[in-house]
């Protein structure tokens, strides 16, 4: 089943007498359960594509079906509902409320749910935090959590409404090597359970943990290739820890 179906997506911006062609005809299909990386240099159009994928912007031309819904025909309220209910966002800067606990941060999207579904917000938030390995950190404030743990809270918040897919924008950009591997191991675990993930990144080593890499240039898709030898972030994390443990023990001798 296709979660994302884009055909002929164009996005132009008028800047005085100049027309900036940010996207020049994107055709893209992402099936349920895929883990896709979108890469490209600055100015390639990947951020513009991400904004349209996330229903933060509409294309100048073309069609975008998200989980079977034609977003180009949606009015403002329906467009907002599609964005809020079908997409889970994960940002580079975490975007957590600083004076609010991990549990309360994850609960927040459920308070704005207009679907009419009755749900125990606290129980759902607790369950998702346990799923990302933070069951013992429910009452911690962001300042009491490491960068990797804060990103785990952000991922739990993205998952709490069971969206059609997770859209991650440079999710390891503010993290060191160890925490980056932790987050990619979590994404791989979630993907193995069937969650669809689309991730924008400029780091080839991070993209190598996905299953498919889309490379953009000049507003077009230059390459769309499967990852033939997907690396295991969990294995690389274990090797990283073993290597640094050996170095630390060597320094003590």
Per DSSP, the total helix count is 8
Characterize the biggest β-sheet.
6 strands, mixed
Shape: globular
Percentage of residues in strands: 25-35%
Q: Helix amount, in percent?
A: 25-40%
Structural class: alpha/beta
Distance between the termini: 57 Å
Q: Uncertain regions: pLDDT < 50 for 5+ in a row? A: none
Radius of gyration, in angstroms, nearest whole number: 19 Å
Q: Order of SSEs, N→C? A: EEEHEEHEHHHEHEHEEH
Mean pLDDT over the residues = 93
Number-wise, the strands total 10
Q: List the strand order in the largest sheet.
A: 6-7-8-3-9-10
Description:
There is one protein chain. The chain is an alpha/beta fold. 37% of the residues lie in helices and 26% in strands. The chain has eight helices and ten strands. The strands form two sheets. It has a six-stranded mixed β-sheet, with helices on both faces. A four-stranded antiparallel β-sheet has the order 2-1-4-5, covered by helices on one side. Helix 3 (102-111) crosses helix 4 (121-131), helix 4 (121-131) crosses helix 5 (147-159) and helix 6 runs antiparallel to helix 8 (233-252).
């Amino acid at each position: 089943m296709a979660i994302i179906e884009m055909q002929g997506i164009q996005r132009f911006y008028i800047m005085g007498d100049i027309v900036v062609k940010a996207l020049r005809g994107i055709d893209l299909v992402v099936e349920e359960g895929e883990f896709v990386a979108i890469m490209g240099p600055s100015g390639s159009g990947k951020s513009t594509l991400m904004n349209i994928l996330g229903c933060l912007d509409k294309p100048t031309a073309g069609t975008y079906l998200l989980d079977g819904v034609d977003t180009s025909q949606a009015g403002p309220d329906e467009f907002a509902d599609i964005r809020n209910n079908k997409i889970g966002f994960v940002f580079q800067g975490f975007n957590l409320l600083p004076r609010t606990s991990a549990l309360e941060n994850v609960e927040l999207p459920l308070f704005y749910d207009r679907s009419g579904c009755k749900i125990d917000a606290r129980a759902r938030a607790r369950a998702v935090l346990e799923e990302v390995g933070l069951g013992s950190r429910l009452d911690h404030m962001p300042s009491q959590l490491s960068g990797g743990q804060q990103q785990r809270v952000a991922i739990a918040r993205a998952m709490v409404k069971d969206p059609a897919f997770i859209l991650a924008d440079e999710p390891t950009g503010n993290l060191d090597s160890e925490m980056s591997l932790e987050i990619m191991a979590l994404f791989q675990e979630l993907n193995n359970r069937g969650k669809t993930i689309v991730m924008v990144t400029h780091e080839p080593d991070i993209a190598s943990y996905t299953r498919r890499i889309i490379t953009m240039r000049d507003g077009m898709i230059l390459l769309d290739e499967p990852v033939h030898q997907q690396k295991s972030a969990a294995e690389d994390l274990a090797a990283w820890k073993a290597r640094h443990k050996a170095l630390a023990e060597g320094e003590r001798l």
